[in-house]
C-alpha cells in the first residue's frame, strides 16, 4: 500500500479551464493554475488521474474503466455503508439505485466544498491505488442529504442514522436543530 518506490511525488495536470500545465506538489493538493489562476481542485485531479491510470490498462478484461462517480460511489458505499444510509434515510419515492446516484453526486460536490475529504494515495498510478473518503463535517453532510429528500420526516433518529452510516461520532448529530422538529 505505502511502498516507497520513488521520492518524487510531484505530478502534472492539465488545467481544465485553459489547458496550461499545472504542476502539483502531491496528488490531491489543491493548486492554482499558473496561467489562469483558477484552482485545480481534487475532483478535477482525480478525473485526470483515473484516465491516466486507465490508459495502459484499457485492454484488460478484468477491469472496469473508472471515472470519478464510479470511484466515489465505491468508496462511500463500501462495507454496507450505502445500504445502511439508505435504510436510515428510507426515502419514500427513491429506490436504492437512484439514491446511490444522488448521494454520489453529493459526495463529489462535498469533496470540492470541503465537507468531505478525499485522501489520494502516494502513487495514484499504482496497480491498486487506495483512495480514502471521509466525511469531515457530518452536520453539513446530513443537511445536504436532508435537502435531497424533503419528503422524509427528519427527526432525530434519521439524523443519527445518517451520522452512524458515515461513521461519524454520535455527538456530531447535535440536538436542537433549528425549526426541524415537529413537536
Ligand atoms: Zn488555467
The structural class is: alpha+beta
Mean of all residue-level pLDDT scores: 86
Portion in beta strands: 5-15%
Q: Report the strand count.
A: 6
C-alpha-based Rg, rounded: 19 Å
Largest sheet: 2 strands, antiparallel
| SSE series | EEEEHHHHEEHH
Helix content: 25-40%
First-last Cα distance = 51 Å
| Low-pLDDT ranges | 170-183
Q: Which ligands appear in the coordinates?
A: zinc ion
- How is the largest sheet built, in terms of strand order? 1-2
Keywords:
11% strand; binds zinc ion; two-stranded antiparallel ribbon; two-stranded antiparallel sheet; alpha+beta; disordered C terminus; 6 helices; 183 residues; globular
Description of the molecule:
The chain is of the alpha+beta class and 183 residues long. The chain has a domain at 65-172. Helix content is 39%, strand content 11%. The chain is built from 6 helices and 6 strands; from the N terminus they run ββββααααββαα. Helix 2 packs across helix 4 (96-113). The chain is globular, with a radius of gyration of 19 Å. The site of zinc ion has 8 residues, from loops.
